[in-house]
Amino acid sequence: MIDPLALESRCRQFLMDIQAHQFVTFFDSERSTKLCELAMIETFSDDTIIFEEGEIPDFLYLVLEGEILFRKQIAGNNFQIVARAVPNDFFGEFGILDGQPRSAQAIVRGSATLAKIPRNIVIDILDNTRGAVVLKLFHYVIQRLRATTEQYVKQLAYKEKMVLVGEMVNTIIHDLKSPLSGIQLSSGMVREMHSEDEETIEWCNLIQAQATRMTAMAEELLEFARGSAVLHKRSINLVEPLKHFEKLNSIYFQDENVDFSIVCPEDLIIEVDDTKLARVLQNIVINAVQAFDGSGGNVAITVRKFTDCIRLEIRDNGPGIPEDIRENFFDAFVTYGKQGGTGLGTAIAKSIIEAHDGQIYFETSHETGTTFFIELPLSVITHQSPAMH
Ligand SMILES: Nc1ncnc2c1ncn2[C@@H]1O[C@H](COP(=O)(O)OP(=O)(O)OP(=O)(O)O)[C@@H](O)[C@H]1O
Ligand SMILES: [Mg+2]
């Protein structure tokens, strides 16, 4: 049951929020009182559509609580977010001013409380107001327009880059096909010619695994550029891809003076896309090795099973992630201090972990180095063993 006292205090709070809202403070006391009296307060739940693109505008909205997203429909049922509004913002002013249909859909994220002011009242008040108020409004509208344009241009540039990456990778995959099948065939032949020699067989297998990996990596990059990563999950013992990863990179680690170690329970059977998981390890570990910049260091992978997740920690004792890129670290094309760095490695890693419903984050410092944490939900486990707390 709703507590009437709590409801009253909530209403009083919202009334105060309207009085303090920047749109209302643009006006003199007579007009701001009128606005407060005529505003209708409404609380909306998650995903409520406040208005659709193309609708005829009827209200101006003041955000008192929560968040509103503005989205435009692109291909099929996909939407692109073009702006957002948070408490003290207002929206819907374009339609109010020029009477044209709404240019985007407004939808609630989480929940939100808005104060709605009918269009005719806003127009009436604006008609009879001083130039200074109009200037303030103008200023606000321009600021928002700038922010929206900037975000839109960024998104457009990102898409253009992704299209280019996609086209480039397509060409690379095409060109790689024949030399790679040459490598596969010749290493297969060498293996047959020396079928008694275990060491040769092992090296040939390694060559073949690396060649297969090259195509898989290029194809994953293509999937990432298209935004269409498909998981091919299977049940595996987690320690196996880790050991395999160590083996594939052992010569590289030796050359780079890297001391690499793995601590992982022997019986953790999980259902994941192991090729893609290997890609994550590759991208994260290679970054650590590159950060050592030839002077060597330690990279340690530790796997732990908790009551609510499986956590992989990838710890290095390198120089730490540069401060300038920490905030947008996982965004595509964020790279720092590397010749030829595309800035896609960690973005791909994140997309793969999120496709598994997991999360990835890091701790970093100049003194102690960097640790990446990859958490996978317990739902990936297909074989149970006692959990750690
Ligand atoms: N373990 C680490 N220690 C220090 N800096 C790191 C570490 N991992 C990543 N970085 C920094 O983060 C940047 C972004 O990494 P990311 O893998 O996304 O792109 P990249 O390595 O520059 O390019 P790409 O992986 O596409 O070849 C790197 O350029 C590097 O400066
Ligand atoms: Mg990288």
Summarize the structure.
This protein has 389 residues and is an alpha+beta fold. The chain contains ten helices and 13 strands.
Distance between the termini: 39 Å
Q: What is the helical fraction, as a range of percent?
A: 40-55%
| Rg from alpha-carbon coordinates | 28 Å
Strand content: 15-25%
Q: Major sheet, described briefly? A: 6 strands, antiparallel
| CATH class label of the largest domain | Alpha Beta
Structural write-up:
The protein is α+β, with helices and mostly antiparallel strands. The protein folds into three domains: 126 residues, Sandwich (Jelly Rolls); 73 residues; 151 residues, 2-Layer Sandwich (Heat Shock Protein 90), CATH 3.30.565.10. Helices cover 48% and strands 24% of the residues. The chain has ten helices and 13 strands. Strands 1, 2, 3, 4, 5 and 6 form a six-stranded antiparallel sheet that branches. The longest helix is centred in the middle third of the chain and has 63 residues. The model has no long low-confidence stretch (mean pLDDT 89). It binds adenosine-5'-triphosphate (ATP) and magnesium ion (MG). Magnesium ion (MG) binds next to α9.
